[in-house]
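#lab-general

N.A. 3:47 PM
ok so I finally got the sequence cleaned up, no stray characters, all 296 residues accounted for. can someone with queue access submit it? mine expired

B.Y. 3:52 PM
send it over

N.A. 3:53 PM
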Amino acid sequence: MNWKGVFPAVTTKFHQDGSLDMPIFFKNLDAQLSAGVHGIILGGTLGESSVLSFDEKILLTKEAVAYVSGKVPVILNIAEGATKDAVFWAEKAKELGASGLMLLPPMRYAADHREVVTYFKAVADSSDLPIMIYNNPVDYKTLVTIGMFEKLAEVSSIQAIKESTRDISNVTRMRNRFGDRFKLLCGVDTLAMEELVMGADGWVAGLVCAFPKETVAIYNLIQEGKYAEALAIYRWFLPLLELDIHPKLVQYIKLAEQMTGIGTEWVRAPRLTLIGEERMHVEQVVKRGLENRPVL
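B.Y. 4:20 PM
back already:
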């Protein structure tokens, strides 16, 4: 598993009646692959995993793996409250053909350090798939600390970290402590260029769902050391990237996907599509972005 590059956390596409819309899901996958992304992540926050049924998660994973057909790795996110459920999905992911796992700490229960490490190790022991730990204390209230990663470094299948602490210096802190033991991927769109310049290996991206070419261009330019060219795109992109750091990021990004022609705005309850001034604001942000879209 090469944990480097741009990994879209793709949205799950629905019809207006709430049923899965696989044709538009595949259309978006086509746009991601055409732009040159390096992997696909299913079932994250943007994927509305918490409102998908068991059968829908199975279908979505199976169909995505078949459609991508080995062009890039397909990563399944695991966000469960019970260890046995996380172990089940780790085993099922392998069976369905996924290439790796993105793993959150236990949901709902505020586990302590020993419990979180034990949970991660139990999932890792249940599968030989490579794992990226999702470290997001802002949204999920559990910080995976340096001390915890020292314990997890013993587990060879735990290979990468989605760095969403909102602390740019954590990239340097992790490098100083662990060298290249873990691949580090920025998980916050508005900090992506900063963390890539500081040595992050990749970007688990959100607005890539609507703007895949621009996202990949920024990553590639930084890898080539063309910082001024990357910065010009990033400055244009920032107002759009800020849609990723709002509680309604799913609705915001799905509306952006619809406006760029590679998605729809439909979400599943309890989420509702945007209305009124909030909708107008998001539409204006996306419209301005489209009007000033850089030529790549």
